[in-house]
Predict the 3D structure of the following.
Amino acid sequence: MVPGTVKGPASAAALLLALAGCLSAGDLEAKRAPEPLDLPQLEPLTPSAWLVSELTRGSSHRLSVERELPLLRRYLEPKVERVADWRGFWLGRYGPSSWLDTQLAWSPSACENRESLVSREAPVSLPSWFGLEAPRVKGLGVTFDVVPTWTLGLVPPPDVDVAHAAPASRCQPWKRPQVVTVARYGGEHETFRLLECDGSVAIDALDHLSVLARPPGTPRPELPLPLEPELDGAVDGEWIAELRVLDPRLLWVVAALSSAFPGRVVYVISGYRRDAHDGYHHKGRALDLFVMGVKNEDLFRVCRKLKDVGCGYYPHNTFLHIDVRPPGSGRAVWIDASQPGEPTRYVDAWPGVVESGALTFGSKVEDS
């Protein structure tokens, strides 16, 4: 047996005791002290805490097209002309069309005491993923009443689509819409993006175009426009005095014309007209414009192919008329050969522009 060596369980236990004796009481206390936990910052528990946490992770989101958001569809898909507001209400869930097939049903609840009904109401149950119970961290034996369970990673976080918002897909560089410079009389101009990569209306684009299309002599308002209409001095349909928010489909039409001639300035001659009675200009659905450096004949060839769009060519003027029409209207195309100040004189053809068939309203011909 070699001196200094130990064998067997008894010898091993003796060696461990000898090593333990070399440690001071302070070392033992230090080893017993638990390491601090690296917990996330705890936020107050509110009904919207889960949504705020999900939306502040650095990713962008966009509103999804759902039945619950019918009023936003015209901004998410400005290319598609929607039915009129009154028709949408008539055919909607609460419109008169839903009353036709209704049947009377007997219910004794209307004759009962209202307080007794409240006592029988079932408690509201939240989905399992909501996780509002106080989470318990394994090994600590304590609970935190200030955060939902999913913030600590104990349960999967809720799907943000419950709020009709979905992560926005990344826009590829070659698909990203270009910014457009839009100008008006007096040298006023703005450079902004009309549409997003997915075809929806770009942020504040409708405000910018509506301000540039205001009547002549109207003071320029501050941007962005107020969140709600201001009734002081405003007439029917105006957002603020002498300014009407344009139809979002005009953004799509202007974007289509601009993409056909990229890098060119779009000059707005006329937009909203307060005294235009019940015409498209008065409704904020029409623009008179031209693209700098582009012949109106070439602009007319692009415009007349757009569906549910009116396109008027004026050989003796400097602008092209565009308007957006109700769904199913087809293409409205005309040529007005009158001189400035003369009565309207429509023609069916114009040399170098259209050989024939230039006066059509409601054409259903597909794009060529």
The CA atoms of residues 115 and 266 lie 65 Å apart. The longest strand covers residues 286-291. Residues 41-79+127-168 form one domain. Residues 1-6, 101-147 have pLDDT under 50 and may be disordered.
